[in-house]
Amino acid sequence: MRKRYLMGGLAIALIIAYPVASHIHGNTIQARLDSDIQQLNQYIEQELQQSVRFSYEQTQSGIFTSQYMIKFKDEEGKEIPLLQQRIDHGPFPPNALKKGHFSPVNYASKITLINNDLTKAIFTATQSEQPIVIEYVYGYDSKAKGYVGIAPINISQENLQVGATKISFNAKKDLTDSYFHIEMEPSKFAWLNTSGFIPQEFNHLGKIDMEMHYKLDEKGNLSVETQSDTDYYRFGDKETSIAIHRVKDTQKVTDDGKGLDISATQKAEQVLINDVDLGSYSVDAGYYQLDSGAIKSLGRTIYAIAFNYFNAAIAQKELLSPEPFLESRLFELGMQAIAIFNQNPKLQYGPIQLRNKAGASSVKAELDFVLPKDLNVTSPEEIYLKSLKKLDLQFVLNPAWLKQFTFDVLTVMAKSEKMPLPTDKDKADIDLIIDDMHKSAIESQFFQMKDNDLLFAVTAQAPEGKTIDQVEKISYNEQVYTKEDVEEILTTRGRQFIKLMEERDIESRWDELVERFQNPAE
Questions:
Q1: What is 497-518 written as a DSSP string?
Q2: With contact defined as beta carbons under 8 Å apart, do 489 and 406 qualify?
């Protein structure tokens, strides 16, 4: 009997205590919201140098639930309601329990966009009652876990369709340890770019799946890693259509407060131009040991210049010359650019590999820099040599790959020009021309033959405390020479390569081949 009374009393105590605990949570949440809004406005004023502000108003206060309205104050001081936020107090918000969050949390929140003159265009474009929905729970570990849902956007007059987007997140309030997962459905849009290298009257983007990890430790060390998979990119105009299928991207940024490292890779399984399969590609690139402080200073300066420029352009309602905005800060920009070399940065460009059904070719460049000690130079080339510590260039050309690539490019050209496609005879002519180019490269010794590939490679490493202009030995095609000998060998072999190409009439044969697929009427 006593045990039964004890359990019953405990249950009653919990029932009475829960509203009190929930009410205390509500008061704590309001204090936190007030602090968050204050910090946001401070950031906008100090970092972004904008005069807009945010504020909030509590529209409902209850034991278990509170409602808030987030307002936007424009530069003219006009206050406009922007967001509606519903907060269910912890430690066990009913809405969180319904969604499977059974652990105690600080609160659960749902944020929606308010429909008014400021946001009307978004509601019209999405044709949705709730174009943007943010739902999350905020735990006692100071982490928010939830998602942002963005409805599909369709603006027919702009030929714009953006697929539905969902951003899942598990992030600390200060973002020091955060994970984001972005899923976006296929999109279509048009660019008014008809003057570039590739006209883009239409752009189709396949489904995107991206993950990002952001970490900032107590010492200020930053790490950001992203991985993404994109089904396809399609773009072009009425004459040229380009499709890149199954694209994988990775990016990594690390910053220890002194040196900033940025690296990226991209791989595509298939590239089609006018439905002609040109094969696949992979790209690997990185910038390492960039001076962290200099990069941040340079970024702030560029932002300030751009901000002043666009403000002036908006005020005068016309495009302005950027020169007056740059002139007053050119010295500052120059000093910040030089300071990037403080940590002796490294550039890695490649290997960039192109592959088709016949083979693969690639290019790679690795450069190590130092801060120039002597800026008393007479040419840009001289300052480049005085800031370079290591040079590693490599070009690998596979003749079989080149033959197939040439045939495919001529097929693309024929389709674009509405001409007959290349035949077996054309392919035989391509093979003969490239075979003669191959012979010229080997006979001149300008290239080296290695594993069925043509290799052109130059490597130079300066001794400690010196730069490339002071090296004594240079490796050329895996043979070491003195600097003076390399200059002479490159010049002699290069001239011989050109001479042999001329003797074999490569240029005119190539021109005649290309003319077969050019429409004489255009």
A1: HHHHHHHTTHHHHHHHHHHTTS
A2: no
Alpha-carbon torsion angle 460, 465, 469, 472, nearest 10: -60
Domain termination site, one of 151, 173, 203: 151
**93 CB-contact burial (10 Å; exposed 0-12 / middle 13-18 / buried 19+):** buried
Work out the pLDDT band at 315, boundaries 50, 70, 90: confident
Position 258, amino acid: K
- What percent of the chain is modeled with pLDDT above 90? 47
* Domain final residue pick, 106, 133, 151: 151
In a domain, 513, yes or no: yes
Identify the pLDDT of residue 439: 96
Domain that holds residue 354: 347-518
What is the distance between the alpha carbons of residues 270 and 108, in angstroms, rounded to a whole number? 45
Whole-number Å distance between alpha carbons of 477 and 288? 27
The CA distance from 472 to 488, in Å, is 14
**How far is residue 445's CA from residue 455's CA, in Å, rounded to a whole number?**
10
Mean pLDDT, range 42-55, rounded to an integer: 76
Highest mean pLDDT among 124-128, 326-330, 344-348: 344-348
Q: Which residues lie closer than 8 Å to 158 by C-beta, 6 or more apart?
A: 189, 190
What percentage of the chain carries pLDDT values higher than 70? Answer: 86
Integer Cα distance of 53 and 206 in angstroms = 37
Query: Is 141 inside any structural domain?
Result: yes
- 315 SS3 class: helix
Both tokens assigned to 154? 């369709």
Instruction: Give 137's strand partners.
Output: 108, 145
Residue 131, Ramachandran bin (φ over 0: left; ψ between -120 and 50: alpha; else beta) = alpha
Distances (CA, A) of 437 to 115, 360, 409: 67, 17, 18
What is the Cα 285 distance to its own chain's centre?
Answer: 12
Among 87-91, 113-117, 441-445, 501-505, the least confident range: 87-91
Alpha helices in 317-451 (DSSP H): 323-327, 330-339, 380-386, 399-417, 424-443
Give buried/exposed letters for 374-389 (b at 16+ CB in 10 A, else e). eeeeeeeeeebbbbbb
Render pLDDT for 292-301 as a digit per residue (tens, 0 to 9). Answer: 999 999 988 9
Backbone angles phi, psi at 338, to 5 degrees: -65, -40
**Who wins on pLDDT, 156 or 138?**
138
- What is the model's pTM? 0.81
Q: Is residue 6 part of a domain?
A: yes
The residue behind tokens 């050209």 is 413
Domain annotation covers residue 465 = yes
Q: Show the beta-strand stretches assigned E in 292-387.
A: 346-356, 359-369
Write out 3-57 in H/E/C secondary structure. HHHHHHHHHHHHHHHHHHHHHHHHHHHHHHHHHHHHHHHHHHHHCCCCCCEEEEE
Q: What angle do CA 15, 19, 25 make, to 5 degrees?
A: 135
The total number of structural domains in the chain stands at: 2
Helix axes 506-515, 483-503, angle to 10 degrees: 50
| pLDDT above 80 for 501 | yes
